[in-house]
Amino acid sequence: MPECFGCHKIIRERYLLKALDQLWHEDCLKCACCDCRLGEVGSTLFTKANLILCKRDYLRFCVGDRFYLFENKILCEYDYEERMVFANLPQNSLDHIKRQTEILEAGSDAGSSGYGSSESPYTEHR
C-alpha cells in the first residue's frame, strides 16, 4: 500500500494524487497559502521556496522576489534600482540630455525627413 507524502499515512482511498514524484491523499495536497485542495483547482501546482502553491497564490506572491518602499511607494527591484541609478547621476548630466533633446526638437520641421534636407536620401537625381 502506498504512503501519503503529506501525512505519512497509508493511502487506502480509491483515488490518489501524484505530485513532485510523491503520492498524496486528495485532502493532503494543499496550497501552503490558501489551503485549497490542489486536486480540485486544476492539474497544475507551483513550488517556490519549498512551498507548494496554487496558480493564483504563486502569481500573487511570487511575481517579483524583492520589493522596496521608496517615497511611500512599493517598487519592484528593477524599478527601484533604475531610480537609484538616476538619483545618483549628477543633475548637470540630466540637464545635458534635456538640452540635446530640445536642440534636436527645435531644429526639426514638419517637412524634414531627418536627413538634413526635405528630400529623402533615396531620391533619385537625374
TrEMBL record:
<feature type="compositionally biased region" description="Low complexity">
    <location>
        <begin position="105"/>
        <end position="120"/>
    </location>
</feature>
<keyword id="KW-0677">Repeat</keyword>
<keyword id="KW-0479">Metal-binding</keyword>
<feature type="region of interest" description="Disordered">
    <location>
        <begin position="105"/>
        <end position="126"/>
    </location>
</feature>
<dbReference type="Pfam" id="PF00412">
    <property type="entry name" value="LIM"/>
</dbReference>
<dbReference type="GO" id="GO:0140297">
    <property type="term" value="F:DNA-binding transcription factor binding"/>
</dbReference>
<feature type="domain" description="LIM zinc-binding">
    <location>
        <begin position="2"/>
        <end position="64"/>
    </location>
</feature>
<dbReference type="GO" id="GO:0045944">
    <property type="term" value="P:positive regulation of transcription by RNA polymerase II"/>
</dbReference>
<dbReference type="InterPro" id="IPR050945">
    <property type="entry name" value="LMO_RBTN_TF"/>
</dbReference>
<dbReference type="GO" id="GO:0005634">
    <property type="term" value="C:nucleus"/>
</dbReference>
<keyword id="KW-0862">Zinc</keyword>
<dbReference type="GO" id="GO:0003713">
    <property type="term" value="F:transcription coactivator activity"/>
</dbReference>
<dbReference type="InterPro" id="IPR001781">
    <property type="entry name" value="Znf_LIM"/>
</dbReference>
<protein>
    <submittedName>
        <fullName>LIM domain only protein 3-like protein</fullName>
    </submittedName>
</protein>
<keyword id="KW-0440">LIM domain</keyword>
<dbReference type="GO" id="GO:0046872">
    <property type="term" value="F:metal ion binding"/>
</dbReference>
